[in-house]
Queue: 4 jobs
Job 1
Amino acid sequence: MSIKPVLAIVLLATHLCVPVSSVFAQTAGEVLKVYEPLKKPERKTRLIEGAKREGRLVFYGTLGVDASRPMLDRFRQFHPYISIDHYCSGSVGIYNRVVNEARAGKHEVDIIELSAGPVSDLIRGGFIDPYRSPETDAVRPEFIDPRHFWSAYHYLVVGLAYNKNLVKASEVPKTVTR
């Protein structure tokens, strides 16, 4: 993967963290409402000003410290005024923490890194707010949910193979379902 998509996600991460405020117990969606009508340049400026005031990014993810370090270090290079709190756990741990904090009215997390299944459950449960980043143009469209609930920073290509010595060409499935 090239650095451009990673950088775009890092920049996207910047803006996800900006307006969340646990002090006022507002959700990201509630805070972001004031930014929606703004044009892209003003919106980006105001989000960065908010990030400087808040000074903190809370990141929950399944990526280990070694795997997340390059992304978080790159973020720190561009935004040295923001400290990063990183909580690493398995999918169930992240999911439970997000749900329990939200139910308690505690809106600490800014960015959640999880696989599609738990993210879909969080969306269905109303625990994730949509967000339109000013950096969306730098991200390939297939990496962004059309409703803006998530954006992906990598993809996994799955290829099927078979042993020609054990499976006849006429027996090879033509589709995934057969």
Job 2
Amino acid sequence: MPHKYKTKEFPVERVREQFDYDYETGFLISKRYAGRPVKGRLSQNKGAWMVTLYREDGSRVTTNYGRAVFAWVNERWPDETIDHIDRNPRNNRVENLREADNVLQQQNTCNYSYGSCWNKDAKKWQSRIFINGKSNHLGYFKTQKAAQDAYMAECDRIGRKYLPPTLVDGKYVVAERIDPAAIYIPLDSF
């Protein structure tokens, strides 16, 4: 379901009038304040980085920093939320941003660990997948890798388009499908 943001009504051209974008750093650069990088401010309720946009009449609209970068680069507001692939809300480089629905956002969380989680009661790894907002249990496994393999198999079976980023050799990799042997993500790595 697309999100309804006040910024949808805010002309994207105004974002480009107020800012330039540094592709190397991921910062918006203020045209109003002598080309200084706009660092944004931390939202108190969501922990997201925000940026203030100014309408022609001087009134302000505050929006998510990543949404403003997405709008500047793509010349349109995103239809969904913006997901930071590497999970770092300060990394607003365009290659780190993607439109995401709630399912993809849920998958790309530190505690999700690629379809697996530790079940304290069963004392085993549990595999689950979210389909249409509902959690579907895939089974209990002795190892985290086995639980993640079950998740990958279910993704293949249902033709899931998105997969969360994977830590491979110390770097996050985003792919439609990757070698299951490369997706082991120890929980203590986050």
Job 3
Amino acid sequence: MKVHRIQGIAFSSYLVETPSALFLIDSGFRWFEPLVLHKIRSIGREIEDLGLVVLTHPHIDHVGAVPALLTHTDFEIAAHPTSRAALATGGRAFSRPTQTWTKAVQWLATTALPLLRLPPIVPTVLPADGERLDRFGLAGALLYTPGHSQWCISLVLDDGTTLAGDLIIGAGHMTTRVSPPAMAADPAGALVSMRKLLDAGAKRFMPAHGRAFGAADVRALLGRLTAEAATAR
């Protein structure tokens, strides 16, 4: 099993490759479609090998290319069971800013998203918390990891590789160190979800924003945030 990064501007999706199938973790914006197709061809595979797309949460930068990819082939779409209404809007939802610079992102979202014509996305797989994906040929499980949004799910592969969307931000994306989500529906809940992933055996994190990092970085982040909270009391 191999994990291939599909790098865009300030965003990454991931292609998990097994001998029998391909699995896409988040599709990126609408304009990500050619990047996904190029990555698939560059590893000697075909779009028809794509069996499952996992949407870590229903925000436009994670789901926007799904309708375009569906014009090439059929595939299953996995998403949090409560995200169906948000996906029906094509990804117009967004989370609250937790940092000053993300207030600009919030303004852009509230201004631009209502103007876009976004086709609805219909999930076909609504996993239970901790549900394994062996029936699709993928050795791993999907866990509910709310925090960035209430609809977040993360994929933990059996080798410890973890794809958690926007739950944790890697260094290099508006930050020099591993950081909590810059926009979050529930910042405290995000910390609970981070611990949940560590308990589930997460070892190497592949974030949607920023560079990859390890479990030790997440433990350090949790320790830092706990210390900051104690100081603020």
Job 4
Amino acid sequence: MMQANRIDYRRVLATAALSCLCLAITACGSIVTSGANLQQVREDDLLRAKQAYIIHPGDELEIVHVVDTDYNATVTVGPDGNISVPGLPESIPAAGLDTRQLTQNLGDLYQRHSVHEPHFSVILRRLGSQQVFIGGEVLHPGYLEFPGGERRIMQVLMAAGGLLPTARSGEVIVVRDSATGKRMVFSIDVNKIISGEDLSQDIVLHSLDTVYVPRSHIVQADIWVDQHIRQLLPFSTSASYSYNEGKTHP
């Protein structure tokens, strides 16, 4: 009788655990609940393309003087966003500006320090490395740097070692600064890219974008059950059996 009561007790707890697991899976909805949709992302990319290019660290610039050629220079924007040019005593901020703004600032400084009537232009010769941050369920999370321009999201995921089996591949999250300077967040369904259903989701990432790959629903539910069910059970959920004189004993 005691054995029967113990079995019923376990069945009740097992049923309760299964019910909680179902509830946990059901509760695991979309992470991004108020982010941008892909159409808004595409519109932002179009607006970005119409704007003047913003200089980034690592970009290579050429400064060409028409008359005072001694001040010609090819410079690389440093990690601090500054450049050093002939004729000016201090480094000059360049990152965050477009070439027109940088030309104006350099012209004012040339007149103040070295050249009375400067006639020159600033030319963007080469883009620096694209810098992307990636975390979550990938093999190698962290900071990635890609020389020579921007990459698509599938290329970045592969560079991070690919998705882990625990990844929520249907909702890969991207956080970035929009063309207007506001923060925006949206999600990408990698499954649709791999299947070929919607290749437009293989978007181009921009420098300093952050990519986060969440855990899958079932993994999240399993963690929840482990924290709220398994650790509270008065017995082990694993079973072992031994064979002795032709009988099995749980």
